[in-house]
Each structure stands twice: as C-alpha cells, then as structure tokens.
Design a protein that fits this description.
The protein is mostly helical and 233 residues long. It has 12 helices and 2 strands. Strands 1-2 form a two-stranded antiparallel sheet.
C-alpha cells in the first residue's frame, strides 16, 4: 500500500489534459522512483528530489511544482511512515466527509515539503471541488473492479464525488445540482444526492457515469435520453 498510495497521488495529481500526455508524464516520474517509490522517497534527500524533477513539464506543471509534491510526500512518509498514517491523523471523529481531513492533509504535505503547497494540490478550504484529490481518495478507500483500495478502515461513505465537467453536466441534466459552477458546494450537493441511493458508497456510480462524457461512442445527451425513456417506460 505504501507504493500504491505514492503512485496514486502522483497519477491523480497529473490527471489533467490529454490521456496520452498524462500517461507519458506519469511514467516519466515513476521510472525515476523505481523499484519502490515509497522507499525511494524515504531514502532521498531534498536535493536529490529537486534534481530528479529537472526537465519535467506537464502542461502548466513545472519541475518546481513536481519537486514540491515529491518533497511533501517524502516528509510525510519519514514522519508518519506512510501517506495513509499522515492522512488519518487529520480525520475528526465527527467528520461526515473527508473534506476537512483532505484540507489538513494538503497542509501537512505543504509543511513537510518546505512551507508551501505544490500547485498540484488544491486546498478544499478555498472552495475548489479538488477533483483530482477526491479521485485519489476514491482509488485508495474503495476496493472493487474499478478502484484498487489499500487504505483500510476509512469507510467509503465519507467519500466525495470527484467532480469534473463530465459529471457536472450529467448531474445538471439529472437535477442533482442547480449550481452552475463545478465547485466544492456542487460536489457536496451531488454526493448528497447519490448518498440517498447508496449511503455507504455514494461514489460507486462515478466511474460508469463519467464514461458517457469521455468515450467517443457515448454522450451525456444520450445518457439523459435513456434516462427519460426509463422514466416514461
């Protein structure tokens, strides 16, 4: 799980742009962290990680931003043994979602990385939907044919929909939210709607629904038409 969480945070953080570009740049990073990403980070110096990141570029993400992310993970792993343990320290007993813990986790990565967060890690306190961070949590907390899991005992009921344009458009069409911006409030509204159907796992439909906005042979309009047919039939 220590390697999986490191790979997951890197991959989710870079999950914007064209798919082939994402795959190429994630591979670029992981090739330099072999054979064990977690052990590599734990054993590396700050300077070594800065050198490792030299020459990296992923759309708007510079080598400096990648280095900040790697240094933050290094610090958390060195202090708490794993990203999981660092994240769990931020979970409050009364938290109904992972949003507060996620904000504390971003702060922790910033502190351990040298004082400022990488731009790859948006802060939920600022109202962002933080789609990529919630995607990371979905991967690590859930375990089925879609999500590999690894973070045991946290409970999928506190997960929030990783809200992107596709899910936002689908949710608007289905009446799950009226918010015109895909922000944190919209993500919470949509998750609340799904929680009424699947209270223990409100993000279970995220992967299959977003295919309608991603795959060429499918469309959001086609999904909404099928939903209308089901309601009428």
């Amino acid at each position: 799980p220590r390697d999986r969480e490191v790979v997951g945070l890197i991959a989710s953080s870079l999950a914007y742009g064209r798919v082939q570009q994402i795959l190429r740049n994630v591979a670029w990073v992981l090739e330099r962290l072999t054979p064990s990403p977690a052990a590599f980070l734990e054993a590396s110096s700050i300077r070594e990680l800065e050198v490792l990141a030299k020459g990296f570029r992923h759309r708007f993400t510079t080598e400096e931003e990648l280095a900040l992310l790697l240094k933050g993970m290094r610090g958390v792993i060195r202090r708490w043994d794993s990203l999981y343990q660092g994240f769990c320290r931020g979970i409050g007993e009364r938290d109904t979602t992972f949003v507060p813990a996620l904000s504390r986790f971003v702060d922790l990565l910033a502190v351990e990385g040298g004082g400022r967060p990488s731009s790859l890690l948006p802060d939920p306190k600022r109202g962002s939907a933080c789609k990529r961070l919630h995607l990371f949590l979905r991967w690590m907390v859930r375990k089925d044919a879609v999500d590999p899991g690894g973070w045991e005992g946290l409970g999928a009921h506190r997960l929030i929909i990783p809200l992107d344009t596709h899910m936002h458009n689908i949710s608007l069409g289905l009446g799950l939210t009226q918010r015109r911006h895909a922000d944190l409030k919209a993500a919470l509204e949509i998750t609340h709607a799904f929680r009424r159907v699947a209270p223990e796992d409100p993000v279970r439909y995220d992967f299959v629904l977003t295919r309608w906005g991603i795959r060429e042979e499918l469309s959001v309009g086609g999904l909404l038409e099928e939903m209308e047919d089901i309601k009428e039939g």
